[in-house]
Structure prediction request, 635 residues.
Amino acid sequence: MSNLPLISWRPLSLRADISRFSAPSLLWVGSKASALVFPALLLVLWQVAVNRHWVSAQILPPPSLVLESLLQLWHSGDLWRELSISLERVLIGFVLGSAAGLLLGIGMGLSRTLEAYVLPSFQAISQVPVLGWIPLLMMLVGIDESLKYLVIAKAVMVPITLNALAGIRNIPKGYLEVAQVYQLGLAQRLRRVILPAALPSLFTGVRFALTKGWIALVTVELLASSEGIGYLMVDGRQMFQLDLVIVGMLVIGVVGLLLDQGLAWVEMRLQRWQRPAF
Amino acid sequence: MMKSRVLLPLLTLFATGWCALASAADAPEVIRFGVATVGKGGTPFAAGSVTGLAHQRKAVEEELKADNIRVDWVFFKGAGPAVNEALANKQLDFAWQGDLPAVIAKAGGLNTKLITADSLLTSVYLVVPADSPAKTLEDLKGKKVAQFKGTNLQLATARTLKAEGLSERDFRTVNMEFSTMSSALASKDIDGAWMPAQAFDLQAAGVARIIYDTRAKSPKFTRQGHVLVDAAFEQKYPAVVQKVVDALVKTAAWATTPGNEEAALALWANAGVRIESLRAEQEGQSFIRRYSPRIDEFFIDRYRATVTESRELGLLRGDVEVKDWVEPKYVNNALERLGFKNLWPEYDANNQPKKAL
Prediction:
């Protein structure tokens, strides 16, 4: 995913904006508004494509029909029902995956021996995309919820592990030397030095992982599910109601964005202590 | 600079495409024939339809040889729904498909014409894992039952459930295509599945057991198939449509000639379904009846029922006037001209042959 670098620099630059300008609100509004330009253009293009019959109306339904279906799904409660099922799956998979990822990443960060034994295999395994795991996992654990949890957990675990490891490896030597001078124990070193110093990198990992997990969820729901937002899309496609598919895409996009922005907000709060340093 | 470097070739491409389209007005170079099924493992074969036989016997190619028209066959693992998408994208001229997906597409605004019937009165089988204790539909209530949504099996299944006082909601319905069903039954991930003739394969392999046969209950619980043509194509090339229908009618006549039944089954078996299973599927049915190409009262009534029933089930938006959708003139012409009029009498809505006049 190309948004990895984006995730890591955006909070920094935002922070710089806020500290440098005394009246940042105008700038902020401007930047938010400019983000809407592209979707607006896309919407216009969509409407034009429909009006001019560039694509058949069965494949690309008009925006009005999509909106209508969205509202209908919203009012009937179906949208929330499917979405809550999907969110629950992501949450469980995310918790499992990040717990495993943190353990593994911190473990490798602290022990070069563990890293030497585990990292190459881990990297090899992480090269196999989510889609590649599904057939095997389906045979092993079936098509039930455990399949979804595992697939999401795997997607989540990889970026968290790698970012935790990188975060620890990149801690300035000086910090660790100070810790050594003060003769801090492992627990204290972890709590006072390693975790806070590795936090920015960790958070990059967490945000990236959540995006990955959300994408993995949709993938697995498209393939094997009888409920959830991905299934809503499959159903729409099978029943030749492509407006449902587009509603699903919109919801997935918006929810993914909200999840990411929510985490960005949490990240800003958690890292306040670092601000004076800049 | 960049702009013109991209734009110019694009425009040229457009222009050449346009010219190619314009010059081809009298006869197409190629016709694209979609088939809403695929053989085992994705092989390009279709079991159970005259279209599947015509494909293997190259009957359509033969008919169009003099006009130098090629035939591109496309087999869709995604079955009827995938055929609809291809039709909407103008990637197909003809297609073999089942009743429900075609009705859904027609209601959605796809402009097609039904030109022959192809495989009527087809059953749907409910299979359970071989060691499942389930014996009746009731036993599967609340259990995980697989269905390939949007195919014509879905409606035949829904009809049956309704008649039994049940509905899809009484089960945990999982959507999957047939090859996934087979492995899911083997691994007991699902408690049951609604399947086509492959059900007999699974039963023979000891993987699964058939506990329900919709056709055995009533001919109304069956599903029908047809060949359709893109309406714009039909308007433009009626002579080509006639030749394609001729080829299909000749193939149907060949298959239903006594003695050829086994040969037809053997061709279908190339799709990876055991010949015994294909034979079992025909049991109690006459080949001639099932492969009548006629668009008669029976056919129209069944498609009308498909429209009303799928509307009742909320599967359909809009409405379809079946009378305006069918175009029986090609098949009637072929039956008359080729001398098969008496081979396939017309059937009424209750599946009874009408008296020949």
